[in-house]
Amino acid sequence: MNRYLITITLIVCFFTAKSQSLKANYDSLFHYLERKDNFNGNVLVADKGKVVYQRSFGYANFKTGERLNENSAFYLASLTKQFTAMGIMILEKQGKLKLSDKLTKYYPQLRTYGNISIKNLLNHTSGMPDYMELMAQHWDKTKIAFNNDVIAALVKYHPKVAFKPGYTFEYSNTGYVLLASVIEKASGTSYADFLSRHIFKPLQMNRSRVYNTRLAKHEIVKNYAYGYIITKNNPKPTSQDSIKESDYLIYLDGIVGDGGIISTTTDLLKWDRALYTDKLISNQKINEMFSTTKLGNGREAGYGYGWGVVPKDTVAGKYVAHNGGWGGYDTHIARFIGPDKTIIVLRNITNNNTVDDVEDSYISILFNNKLKLPAVTANKD
């Protein structure tokens, strides 16, 4: 064997061993989380678009015994916000709205909130009151609410804004519910149809959709990862629909924008790849989505449009990420833009445990190939 072939063989062996070590470390991490934190879900890790780790742990449906697989669709919870934000940016590209437009241009009846712009809604600087608290106080819990019901409640009860728009940052689910409704007004079609036509279908995200009809229309999606909750009174995985304290998961099931999308790890990787291109919007506008928000009080919020933004990090460089939590779902996506690495974790069991810095554990393996186990504390309540 000549020197050239020996060198190539050594290089191949090195990267094969490194890949095997990375997979072994991730296996160790998630098996640890299975034992300590009831981890049940799907994981995908990619390097420059190439999948370097992909596993399914546990069940999609505990009642039937159906196990998770790479095509299982999970409720994304707040990961939905990045798609809502993209919907707004696509409409801007089409000339159907401006980020400077006031909310009242589309919903004049919301005159209490006349100073709030679409941009304020996108970057959580609107100060809008929390719709979940509003609906908990005033909504008939025997009915499933939709976005128009939230708007009607805001009109009827007009709770005050928390601060002057643009002045400070306060994460707002209400803002993204209103953005979904703005998409409908500006496009003349439903939020679900707009995202399907302009995002999911062009990117061939075939297992992704808006899913706010599970309870309202008893619509069943095949290979759906149902949500489960573990509590002190329910030590085994229990359907989120059957826990009395979580009745809001039922009567708010029709609301979209802040949540409402289901997807898979494979589809989310397609989404990740598209964000390196101008297929949906220009690269300039994508960079705008990934830029931190400058506030009127002189500070800077680590949030863009639908994405949390970490401008600098000693290991990973600038990256954007988002978490989601709703009932039995706990979701996470992180995109390390410079080195082009991606972490996607979708789980469908939640509990009352405290897990310290689990995202750091994901990152440590991906960048340093070092296993870092997070501390898991089982809370009694």
Automatic annotation (TrEMBL):
GO cellular component: membrane
Gene Ontology MF terms: hydrolase activity
InterPro entries, alphabetized: AmpC-like, Beta-lactam-related, Beta-lactam/transpept-like
Protein name (record): Class A beta-lactamase-related serine hydrolase
Keyword entries, A-Z: Hydrolase, Membrane
One Pfam family from the record: Beta-lactamase
Segments forming domain Beta-lactamase-related: 42-360
Cellular localization per UniProt: Membrane
